[in-house]
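Hey L., structure's done. Input below.
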Amino acid sequence: MTDNNIEKNTNMLADKPQAEPTNSQPKPKKESFLANLLMNIVIPTLILTKLSDDEYLGAVWGLIIALAFPICYGLRDFIVTKKVNVFSALGVVSVLLTGGLTLLHLPPKYFAIKEAAIPGILCLVTLISIKTRHPLVKIFIYNDKVLKINKVDEALQQFGTKKNFERTLNNASLMIAASFFLSSILNYVLAKMILVSQPGTAEFNAELGKMTALSYPVIALPMLIIMMGTLFYVFRSIRLLTHLTLEDIINDGSDA
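Output:
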């Protein structure tokens, strides 16, 4: 082979585009807020309030089909992510308890207790976790999906403010526990006010649908305000204790 042919072949190889690496992992799809809202709130509410009469699905089948949507959505999330989401799991348990209590025709007071028990348990777990190596605040806020943990830890070590930040996380845990406690009270009050009919009837299903629809503005909104306040408190503390800006610590996928 002549030198000219060798040079020509070398240039052709150099101009050939490089193959994309095949070992890159696809980014996990973010959960759709619209799908979450439809499957957990809108569709079950419409079935319970509009289709539970005897001329449509009836009280029992209306309840079963309405509860099937959040249960199937929660199971699908587990199959797709291959991980147990604690809060999704609690949601599925709550839905199953609602269905079980209804089919057993237990008095409405048991529904109020159940509605208060789930966030009440989360409140206790959050408080207990403060004394462990893995407080729940690290799941909610201080985790590597939200923040560049290594960068924050290095800055805390550099300025000798690690203990001060631990106190911040303890206070944040108390604020999160307070949000669950508030949710427990509001859940109980809302259930006592709305659920007055006998379980297993179309009237009760309609009341259950109304309670589901009101749970977001009445319960989720105050909790969201407290959680946002907690987030602001933690970020402000990080800024003061590490001298890093918000842009420095937010995990945007880069290593810098």
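The chain has a mean pLDDT of 78. Residues 32-249 form one domain.

-- N.
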